[in-house]
Amino acid sequence: MSAWRQAGLNYINYSSVAAQILRRSLKPEFRADALKRDASHVRITPWADGKPAAKAQQAK
């Protein structure tokens, strides 16, 4: 069994933690660009009767 499974993580959580640690361990000149990739954006579109009910909202 994988170490991340034994720790109670799924692969998505494990890879997210590993990526955050890697980004924070970079040299300062590379860290700023890498930390920008740490943010994620989600677009939520409510649906009614098989069609988008309203304009999509962005959530952070």
From TrEMBL:
CDD domains: F1-ATPase_epsilon (cd12153). It holds the Pfam family ATP-synt_Eps. GO terms for cellular component: mitochondrial inner membrane; proton-transporting ATP synthase complex. InterPro entries: ATP_synth_F1_esu_mt, ATP_synth_F1_esu_sf_mt. One of its GO terms (molecular function) is proton-transporting ATP synthase activity, rotational mechanism. Belongs to the eukaryotic ATPase epsilon family. This is (diamondback moth) hypothetical protein. It comes from Plutella xylostella.
